[in-house]
Amino acid sequence: MTTPAVEARTTALEVAMTEMVRTVDRFGREMVDFKREMADFKREMAALWQRSDQARAEERRDWNRRWGEMSNRLGTLVEDLVAPSLPRIAAPYLELPPGCALETALRVKRRHPADPSRTREVDALCSSPSAWLACETRSRLTARHVSAFVTGLPELREFFPEYASRRLFGCLASLAVEPEVVTFAERCGVLVLAVGDELMDVLNTPGFAPRAF
């Protein structure tokens, strides 16, 4: 026979056990819901990364397209603007003998005579029996381009041995050039061309004498 005190404790224990079971059951359901939410979150993140990859791929395709368009415009600059203007611009510096025509060539690519793995390309060049002028075109000309061009100019003699004994002048052409870049190029002894009244105009200071490399 149980006493009222024992019955009370038993009832309290049953209540506690029932509440614990409910708590465990609720916790289990919450864990299931949490795992489901985590799975959904992972799927959303994977989809986001995939969209990001697709976006990056789209950006790369757009960049390649714009680069191709810029290259085409640069090709037009060489063929339509620089080529017709170069003999007129180069003649005063190349000391052309009377009755002798300047030789002009576009996009000349050469392999090094001693090392065929090395190549150099000149966008345009003019030559006379005593001198030659190598021209590089840029869609946008900067001081860094000028420095790199000047550094690489003397090496051109190795790729064009037929001109090795002739004086070499450097020329850079672009659609438009900032005045400070023109000033820097002058200090380096390089001619600078840009679109002007006569297709391409010399931007250097009047009386400027280019350096022979």
Describe the structure.
This protein has helices at 4-94, 143-152, 156-159, 179-188, and strands at residues 103-111, 119-127, 131-137, 167-174, 191-196, 199-202. It has a domain at 74-202: Trna Endonuclease, Chain: A, domain 1. The protein is α/β, with parallel strands linked by helices and 213 residues long. 54% of the residues lie in helices and 20% in strands. Strand 2 and strand 3 (131-137) form a beta hairpin. The longest helix is centred in the first third of the chain and has 91 residues, at 4-94. It starts with a helix and ends in an 11-residue tail after the last strand. The protein has a six-stranded mixed sheet.
Structure at a glance:
The chain is an alpha/beta fold and 213 residues long. It is built from four helices and six strands, in the order αβββααβαββ. Strands 1-2-3-4-5-6 form a six-stranded mixed beta sheet.
